[in-house]
Specification:
The complex is a heterodimer of chains A (585) and B (437).
Chain A lengths: L1 H31 L6 H12 L4 H46 L16 H31 L2 H26 L4 E3 L7 E3 L5 H6 L3 E5 L10 E2 L16 E6 L9 E4 L1 E7 L4 E7 L5 E6 L25 E2 L3 E5 L4 E6 L4 E6 L14 E3 L2 E6 L6 E6 L5 E6 L10 E5 L2 E7 L3 E6 L5 E6 L10 E3 L2 E5 L5 E5 L5 E5 L10 E2 L3 E5 L4 E6 L5 E6 L9 E3 L2 E5 L4 E6 L5 E6 L9 E3 L2 E5 L3 E6 L1
Parallel strand pairs in A: 4-30
Antiparallel strand pairs in A: 1-9, 2-5, 3-6, 5-36, 6-7, 7-8, 8-9, 10-11, 11-12, 12-13, 14-15, 15-16, 16-17, 18-19, 19-20, 20-21, 22-23, 23-24, 24-25, 26-27, 27-28, 28-29, 30-31, 31-32, 32-33, 34-35, 35-36
Helix pairs in contact in A: 1-3, 2-3
Chain B lengths: L1 H13 L30 H25 L3 H17 L6 H13 L7 H17 L2 H5 L2 H9 L8 H7 L2 H14 L5 H5 L3 H4 L5 H16 L3 H5 L2 H11 L17 H5 L5 E2 L10 H27 L2 H4 L4 H14 L7 H8 L4 H36 L10 E2 L9 H5 L9 H9 L8
Antiparallel strand pairs in B: 1-2
The chains are: A alpha+beta (585), B mainly alpha (437).
């Protein structure tokens, strides 16, 4: 009988092992499967997005959805059944082993430890000492690893490789796409706020918080940056890391990603995209918008307050794109190599084209609303090909698009005349449209808590439920002309061109607080670290509490400022009419 | 570092993938009305009272069986009852092991309600341990009882290895305290290896771990109790100070060594002469060294764990969400994780969240330093303890380690003087150098 128990135990063990492997594989497969995200399902859903009235299609999706769920749970049931089988067989194994060892299991085992208890203790001390040392070393290793910025090291390696290629890269820039050019660092006029060791600067990491479009990521007018200075002095260089001159004029705002700060400038002779180093203010490279087919030979007539480079660039961290009043769009990589350029048509715009760009992944969004051929364009950032375009009957506007989270999904929101419209980012299909604007719309919308806010002078300030497109409230106490709104869940901040600034209640539209600052504002407010930063045209800075809109502090910087600052880890980059400077504690 | 913790947490969270299959609702209305969410009624008072009564009664019976009868049969019967009642019938909840978390949470959070029976389930085994040793571990804890019942053979690990591994429960206890005190999660409940078996379903990853432990239990005595159980670590302190000390026999030890080799948890100390080959001064120097090292290790442990508090805090759902939001903010081109989408859809305020996260990280910093100190102290104390010599003339039970399984009672020839097996067993012990009586 003993032999029988042994054989049963062996067979059971083999069975257990095989079943365990099968269950393990099955479990792994189930972890990988996402039943509702199959290719077929996604395609059908996309079809449904474009044709939401197709009942048959929806029924088909429902049936497929149900089938997928059923299949998933049936498989899960099978897995559980297999597990119970495993438990049962384990029980059989235990019983068989008990029976097999029945005669001998109470015999004591020979003790392989030395009988000398002291020797055992000595050995245990040694083991424990080593184990503690290993654990401590691992802990210290973690602490050390935490101090190293691996991504920066990795990037430095790549940079070294790029530098090795050196001149050939420059040659390529000049010969192929043309005008990407390295800038002689001596030619740039950069003034350091403090003496910084060059080796130290090289070690400075890339910044984690990006500001990839006008008013920050998604053009959202909020930033996750922390530790921004609340006082600085340009002449005394207090809290000023650097200040650099800008080769050509422009009203566009700075954009930050990695170590790069991007702005553009233009005059009658050239239109240029500039890249500065965020730590030093050094002008790293310039890409020219020239040699573009369709580009006008003479500059379009523009207002002096708008200029030829009013639109802020956009980046996705790999490419940076810029647009000028000529309708020229250029796109470069982070090393200053021009990837592509095209003219999307000279804007028929009596003040000059001013809408800023926006990027969503590899899609470049252009709000191209002029007196003729108004449309929303989505271009592929890799090659400039049109991903989708949406013709519009809206009138001319100077507003910039934003990406907002509406009903739990990211959507494109465009404010124009006469409507604020939400679009599907993937295909440009219209989600909702609220006709509420009029006049010359130059301000841009904002969004918080799933609500879209928009305001324009000679129109009104409106709050729209992002999920449904329903108007929640309207107000007309104070309205912006060029400055755009910023919003939190509780307050909507507005700065006017006649010196009044106010905070609307985001729920009701009631004016919660107002300040008569008697100075015009073209720059837009940005919510950062519980505060609202706002520059007047004269260059006076106002910092308010984002929760109460109480004025915390204000001071003059001495340089006219029309652009909106960009924020990153502990730094603020400001463009004035003369220079670009970095504020850092 | 944070990425490493994030990945580890991701793996940890993914264990739950099957336990709670989350599917989105269909994308458009079908006319189906979702039923209201119904929460199960809390445990009835009757069952709670019965739990406590049975706990006291069974621990009393084990005390009687161990101290008066010196027999294993009653203890095994209790094990069976415990597995069936506390394990399968009561689904392993609430258990004394997990109650540590409720007590810690109640200690740091005045708003947390600690039910009376949970407090009793936590305290009663400690009270019994202070009086009689680890009675609860014997046959009342369903986790220990399950391992005891399926044990077939007892292949023992080296005592030196066992002593080293016995630090793991303290580390587990330390992190349990950290996560409970910061209201992050109940680690013991999440990682209880046997709960899925008692409930016949649950997280497959954790259940697989439980099955692995059970397979080990067939050949090694109580691996979970020896090398993992945080409550066992706590009880071992009280048990070492217990009022009554368990004796293998009341008829006098004959130093046959049978009890020593029968113990599955290495809780029986062999007789030894206090004289060793080592010079006395060398031993004294070692004790002084470890006495000096004790506070140093405590501080070092505190600093080491304390510096990791930010990374550890990712275990808290709010901190994790905040990190996701930060990542999304920095890389808006990435697909939004479900958590971020939900946060935005519910109109979450990042500033509010940040304030909350700052508070949580403050708590983490404090408790991380505290548990680091605990871990360092325990290691230092163990090293010190291992440096002490104490002479023994007979086999004695180490009350801190003994789980009162009762095996040694059956092996002791003094308890069964009539058994014929005695003569054959004593021949084996002749291999060992047992000191003269």
């Amino acid at each position: 009988m003993r032999k029988l128990y042994r054989n049963i135990a062996i067979v059971t063990t083999i069975f257990l092992l095989a079943l365990s492997v099968m269950l393990g594989v099955s479990y792994y497969q189930m972890q990988q499967v996402s039943p509702l995200e199959t290719g077929v399902m996604e395609t059908l859903k996309e079809l449904n997005d474009t044709n939401s009235d197709n009942e048959a299609l929806q029924q088909q999706i429902r049936e497929l959805d149900l089938l997928s769920r059923k299949a998933y749970f049936v498989k899960e049931g099978q897995l559980k059944m297999g597990f119970y089988l495993l438990l049962g067989m384990a029980l059989v194994l235990v019983v068989c082993l008990n029976l097999y060892y029945r005669e001998t299991k109470n015999l004591p085992e020979k003790d392989f430890d030395p009988i000398d208890d002291w020797m055992t203790k000595s050995r245990a001390r040694k083991y424990l000492g080593w184990a503690a040392a290993v654990v401590a070393l691992i802990g210290v290793g973690f602490v050390v690893v935490q101090q190293i910025d691996w991504s920066n090291m990795f990037n430095k390696e790549i940079l070294a490789e790029v530098q090795d290629e050196g001149e050939s890269l420059e040659v390529n820039n000049e010969s192929s796409e043309g005008s990407g050019e390295k800038v002689d660092t001596l030619a740039t006029d950069s003034v350091k706020g403090e003496e910084v060791d060059s080796a130290e600067v090289d070690d400075m990491p890339e910044l984690k918080i990006a500001s990839r479009a006008f008013r920050g990521n998604n053009s959202g007018a909020t930033s996750a940056a922390r530790g921004i200075a609340t006082s600085w002095n340009l002449s005394g260089k207090k809290n000023i890391l650097w200040q650099s001159s800008i080769p050509k004029h422009g009203y566009n705002s700075p954009v930050i990603t990695g170590r790069n700060v991007f702005i553009t400038g233009a005059d009658a002779k050239a239109r240029e995209l500039y890249c500065y180093d965020v730590w030093t203010g050094e002008l790293k490279w310039t890409v020219k918008a020239d040699g573009i087919a369709g580009s006008p030979s003479s500059m379009p007539k523009v207002n002096a307050d708008t200029g030829l480079a009013a639109s802020t660039v956009a980046t996705n961290g790999e490419e940076v794109c810029a647009i000028f009043a000529t309708g020229d769009v250029i796109c470069a990589d982070m090393e200053g190599k021009r990837l592509w350029a095209k003219n999307i048509g000279v804007p028929d715009n009596h003040y000059g084209y001013a809408s800023s760009l926006l990027m969503y992944g590899n899609t470049l969004i252009i709000q191209y609303q002029n007196n003729s051929n108004a449309q929303i364009l989505a271009l592929n950032t890799k090659n400039g090909n049109t991903a989708w375009s949406k013709k519009s009957n809206d009138k001319i506007a100077w507003s910039s698009p934003i990406i907002a989270t509406l009903g739990g999904k990211s959507a494109l929101v465009v404010m124009g005349n006469p409507a604020i419209t939400a679009y599907n980012l993937g295909n440009g299909s219209e989600l909702w449209r609220v006709e509420c604007m009029s006049g010359e719309v130059g301000s841009s919308p904002a969004s918080a808590g799933g609500v879209v806010f928009g305001a324009s002078e000679y129109a009104k300030c409106v709050a729209i439920d992002g999920a449904t497109g329903e108007t929640l409230w309207e107000a007309s106490d104070y309205l912006p002309e060029c400055s755009s709104l910023a919003a939190t869940k509780d307050l909507v901040f507005c700065a006017t061109s006649y010196g009044m600034v106010c905070a609307y209640d985001a729920k009701t539209g009631e004016v919660k607080k107002e300040h008569d600052l008697t100075t015009p504002f073209y720059s837009s407010p940005v919510v950062v670290d519980g505060k609202v930063y706002l520059f007047s045209n004269s260059g006076k800075v106002y910092i308010f509490s984002a929760s109460t809109f109480d004025l915390i502090t204000s001071f003059e910087t001495g340089e006219k400022t029309f652009a909106t600052p960009a924020f990153t880890d502990g730094m603020m980059i400001v463009r004035t009419d003369k220079s670009l400077y970095c504020v850092k504690k | 570092m944070r990425k490493i913790f994030t990945i580890l947490l991701g793996i940890l969270y993914s264990f739950n993938a099957l336990a709670v299959a989350r599917f989105p609702k269909p994308d458009f209305t079908s006319g189906y009305q979702y039923p209201d969410i119904v929460h199960g009624a809390p445990n009835e008072l009757f069952w709670n009272i019965l739990d406590v009564v049975l706990l006291i009664g069974m621990m009393g019976l084990v005390v009687w069986a161990a101290y008066k009868k010196r027999g294993r049969a009653i203890i095994l019967s209790m094990s069976l009852v415990s597995v069936l009642y506390f394990g399968f019938f009561r689904s392993g909840c609430v258990c004394s092991v997990g109650s540590i978390q409720n007590v810690v949470t109640a200690a740091v959070d005045p708003n947390y309600h600690l039910p009376w029976y949970v407090l009793l389930v936590f305290l009663l085994p400690i009270v019994f341990a202070l009086l009689f040793g680890r009675v609860f571990c014997s046959g009342v804890c369903p986790l220990g009882a399950l391992q005891e019942l399926i044990n077939v053979r007892n292949f023992r690990l080296s005592r030196a290895v066992s002593a080293t591994l016995s630090m793991i429960p303290w580390i587990y206890l330390a992190f349990t305290i950290l996560y409970a005190a910061t209201r992050s999660q109940f680690l013991i409940c999440r990682l209880d290896p046997f709960i899925g078996i008692f409930r016949l379903g649950g997280d497959l990853g954790v259940m697989s771990f439980g099955i692995m432990l059970l397979v080990m239990s067939i050949f090694i005595g109580r691996p979970f109790c020896q090398f993992l159980c945080p409550y066992g670590a706590l009880l071992s302190v009280f048990s070492a100070l217990s009022w009554k000390k368990l004796e293998i026999t009341d008829k006098g030890c004959i130093n046959c060594a049978l009890c020593g080799v029968s113990c599955p948890v290495d809780a029986i100390r062999a007789p030894q002469n206090s004289r060793t080959k080592e010079e006395r001064w060398r031993g004294v120097k070692r004790i002084i060294l470890f006495a000096i090292l004790l506070p140093i290790l405590t501080v070092a442990g505190s600093v080491l764990v304390g510096t990791q508090s930010d990374a550890l805090s990712l275990a808290h759902k709010d901190v994790y969400l905040y990190e996701l939001l930060q990542r999304q903010e920095a890389n808006p081109e990435l697909d939004e994780p479900l958590e971020v989408e939900t946060f935005h859809a519910l109109g979450g305020d990042i500033e509010e969240l940040k304030a909350k996260v700052d508070d949580i990280r403050g708590d983490y910093q404090f408790y991380a330093y505290l548990i680091g100190a605990l871990i360092g102290f325990v290691i230092g104390f163990k090293l010190l303890k291992l440096s002490l010599k104490r002479g023994r003339k007979t086999y004695e039970i180490d009350m801190a380690r003994c789980t009162m399984c009762g095996k040694c009672f059956n092996y002791c020839p003094q308890n069964q003087p009539t058994r014929r097996a005695i003569s054959s067993r004593t021949s084996i012990t002749s291999k060992n150098n047992i000191p003269d009586k």
